[in-house]
């Protein structure tokens, strides 16, 4: 019998409640306390981990703690890959925490500029090196294809000798800890050549293969250098679809309530309190594999402890809130990455009332998967092409947690076309929506058709569900999306134009008092947009409403 236990939570009772997030990442009045987290009671004990199928690469040090429990409802595929990926990401989180601590205490000596002016730190290269090294050791470098964000160009220059030394040192410090994560270390330190090789083994060319890993070593580099949220994102893609996703979120705590404690306070408090696996300053690692319908969240381990797989993981579920007024959407912190004014208009038009949750990096995906928010909107500048490593891990985790991820047109994201997400609907945009029963809400149909709200612009009888993401009668209707692109709503017969905006109408198909009744969105629910911002190019009108086809038979804003 396993002697391992799940550590209990240590939470100081007299902690000041502080809402002042750096850069307003979690704005004041943010709902963090008001959204209900729909967590299942399951522990991680149902998760299959077959130690017999693992290679010697996994050290024997935590054999006692491995669970031999099998589970019929979780597919067994990728269990070895998942375990190694989770261990590697935990190790990378520790590396990043160390570098971030140094960064915050030593000024910006460790921050460098890439050609696109985004800051890149020692952590980016070091994480890429260690993940590449770990995967190559596990499978043989010739068998592993990794697509990752960083290259070695800047690091190989004669002028970057000091930088390279710092990366090599960081990599070796981290790998020296490998046994604590149940991974075999290199034995002797890697030299600069080996580190550069590990980094450059990750090539963009691999993105066209049928099976490859995709890594964003530090997603949300801005958040990282500002001492805020960031993520380490590792996914395995097979035949164009993510099959494994692991998201390391070193500043995203296990408990939603802890989000309201400012990062710096959490760090100080945790040093004053006893360390457990859920100390206040500890972040988390989220993971899932395709088809299981389950996603998990683990606390980062304390620095002096050994990592035990898969102890302390708890199942997470996407939110089940279905009232837009209670829902929250996430979006990037930086306006340059996504138009805040556009999303504000869209949010208003669909009845979202809460302040947006602006958070750096793929932690937005973590927030949705954990049920801290319901929707993710990102509308990048025209011409910007989304990269696969900024989405792959998060998409899978959300989907397995019960959410839906599509582009603005309701189509699933396509990871089969190389380094970029090609063919995103019109502008680059992604949506992550809450858990919803597709059959009840008309999503299945729109997904099959390969479109969503915008698809219904061409609806010529006004009878079909609009809104693409969610049909009438439940969930959020997001008709504003189609309208905001200039298409309006409804169609030549079913729609009604006012001020350049076509109002949708719907004939209710739900059995009950509303069956057959025609509902039309009130005109006041719509307003026109000329542009969302320089360079964004969103035109047309926007607006939307919710149709209650179940009980009250009314359409309201
Ligand atoms: N102009 C522009 N538009 C849209 N997206 C861009 C743009 N430039 C960069 N990126 C990519 O966005 C990643 C950061 O996205 P976020 O959603 O985390 O944005 S934000 O940091 O919260 O503002 C960021 O990831 P990292 O580079 O890993 O930080 C980039 O891949
Ligand atoms: Mg990124």
UniProtKB/TrEMBL annotation:
<dbReference type="InterPro" id="IPR006239">
    <property type="entry name" value="DPNP"/>
</dbReference>
<dbReference type="GO" id="GO:0000103">
    <property type="term" value="P:sulfate assimilation"/>
</dbReference>
<comment type="similarity">
    <text>Belongs to the inositol monophosphatase superfamily.</text>
</comment>
<dbReference type="InterPro" id="IPR051090">
    <property type="entry name" value="Inositol_monoP_superfamily"/>
</dbReference>
<dbReference type="InterPro" id="IPR000760">
    <property type="entry name" value="Inositol_monophosphatase-like"/>
</dbReference>
<feature type="compositionally biased region" description="Basic and acidic residues">
    <location>
        <begin position="441"/>
        <end position="450"/>
    </location>
</feature>
<dbReference type="GO" id="GO:0046854">
    <property type="term" value="P:phosphatidylinositol phosphate biosynthetic process"/>
</dbReference>
<dbReference type="GO" id="GO:0046872">
    <property type="term" value="F:metal ion binding"/>
</dbReference>
<dbReference type="InterPro" id="IPR020550">
    <property type="entry name" value="Inositol_monophosphatase_CS"/>
</dbReference>
<feature type="binding site">
    <location>
        <position position="219"/>
    </location>
    <ligand>
        <name>Mg(2+)</name>
    </ligand>
</feature>
<dbReference type="Pfam" id="PF00459">
    <property type="entry name" value="Inositol_P"/>
</dbReference>
<keyword id="KW-0460">Magnesium</keyword>
<dbReference type="InterPro" id="IPR020583">
    <property type="entry name" value="Inositol_monoP_metal-BS"/>
</dbReference>
<protein>
    <recommendedName>
        <fullName>3'(2'),5'-bisphosphate nucleotidase</fullName>
        <ecNumber>3.1.3.7</ecNumber>
    </recommendedName>
</protein>
<feature type="compositionally biased region" description="Low complexity">
    <location>
        <begin position="454"/>
        <end position="464"/>
    </location>
</feature>
<feature type="binding site">
    <location>
        <position position="149"/>
    </location>
    <ligand>
        <name>Mg(2+)</name>
    </ligand>
</feature>
<dbReference type="GO" id="GO:0008441">
    <property type="term" value="F:3'(2'),5'-bisphosphate nucleotidase activity"/>
</dbReference>
<keyword id="KW-0479">Metal-binding</keyword>
<feature type="binding site">
    <location>
        <position position="216"/>
    </location>
    <ligand>
        <name>Mg(2+)</name>
    </ligand>
</feature>
<feature type="region of interest" description="Disordered">
    <location>
        <begin position="440"/>
        <end position="464"/>
    </location>
</feature>
<feature type="binding site">
    <location>
        <position position="390"/>
    </location>
    <ligand>
        <name>Mg(2+)</name>
    </ligand>
</feature>
<keyword id="KW-0378">Hydrolase</keyword>
């Amino acid at each position: 019998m396993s002697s391992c236990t799940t550590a209990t939570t240590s939470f100081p009772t007299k902690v000041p409640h502080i809402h002042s997030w750096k850069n307003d990442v979690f704005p004041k009045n943010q709902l963090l306390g008001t959204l209900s987290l729909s967590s299942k009671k399951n522990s991680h004990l149902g998760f299959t981990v077959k130690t017999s199928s693992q290679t010697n690469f996994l050290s024997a040090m935590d054999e006692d703690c491995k669970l031999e429990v099998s589970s019929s409802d979780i597919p067994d595929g990728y269990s070895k890959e998942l375990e190694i990926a989770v261990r590697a990401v935990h190790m990378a989180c520790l590396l990043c925490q160390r570098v971030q601590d140094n960064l915050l205490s030593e000024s910006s000596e460790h921050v460098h500029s890439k050609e696109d002016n985004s800051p890149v730190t020692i952590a980016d290269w070091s994480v890429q090196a260690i993940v590449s090294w770990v995967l190559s050791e596990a499978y043989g470098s010739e068998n592993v294809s990794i697509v990752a964000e960083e290259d070695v160009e800047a690091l190989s220059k004669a002028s970057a000798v000091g930088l390279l030394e710092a990366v090599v040192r960081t990599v070796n410090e981290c790998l020296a800890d490998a046994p604590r994560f149940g991974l075999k270390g290199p034995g002797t330190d890697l030299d600069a050549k080996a580190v550069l090789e590990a980094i450059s083994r990750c090539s963009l060319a691999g993105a066209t293969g049928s099976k490859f890993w995709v890594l964003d070593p530090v997603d949300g580099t801005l958040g990282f250098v500002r001492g805020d949220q960031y993520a380490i994102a590792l996914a395995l893609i097979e035949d164009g679809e993510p099959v494994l996703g692991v998201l390391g979120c070193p500043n995203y705590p296990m408990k939603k309530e802890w989000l309201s404690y400012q990062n710096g306070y959490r760090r100080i408090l945790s040093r004053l309190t006893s360390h457990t696996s859920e100390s206040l300053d500890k972040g988390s690692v989220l993971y899932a594999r395709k088809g299981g319908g389950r996603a998990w969240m683990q606390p980062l381990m304390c620095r002096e402890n050994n990592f035990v797989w898969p102890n302390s993981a708890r199942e997470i579920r996407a939110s089940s809130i279905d009232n837009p007024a209670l829902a929250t959407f996430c979006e990037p912190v930086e306006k340059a990455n996504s138009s805040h004014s556009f999303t504000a208009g869209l949010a208003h038009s669909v009845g979202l009332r809460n302040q947006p949750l602006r958070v750096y990096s793929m932690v937005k995906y973590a927030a949705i998967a954990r049920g801290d928010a319901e929707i993710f909107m990102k509308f990048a500048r025209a011409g910007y092409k989304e990269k696969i490593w900024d989405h792959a891990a998060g998409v899978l985790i959300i989907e397995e947690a019960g959410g839906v991820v599509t582009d603005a047109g309701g189509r699933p994201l396509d990871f089969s076309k190389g380094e970029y997400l090609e063919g995103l609907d019109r502008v680059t945009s992604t949506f992550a929506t809450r858990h919803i029963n597709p059959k009840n809400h008309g999503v299945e149909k729109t997904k099959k058709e390969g479109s969503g709200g915008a698809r219904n612009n061409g609806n010529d009888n006004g009878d079909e569900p609009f809104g693409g993401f969610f049909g009438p009668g439940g969930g959020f209707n997001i008709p504003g999306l189609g309208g905001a692109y200039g298409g309006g709503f409804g169609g030549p017969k079913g729609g009604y134009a006012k001020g350049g905006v076509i109002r949708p109408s719907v004939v209710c198909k739900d059995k009950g008092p509303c069956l057959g009744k025609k509902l039309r969105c009130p005109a006041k629910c719509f307003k026109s947009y000329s542009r969302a911002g320089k360079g964004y190019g969103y035109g047309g009108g926007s607006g939307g409403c919710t149709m209650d086809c179940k009980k009250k038979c009314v359409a309201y804003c």
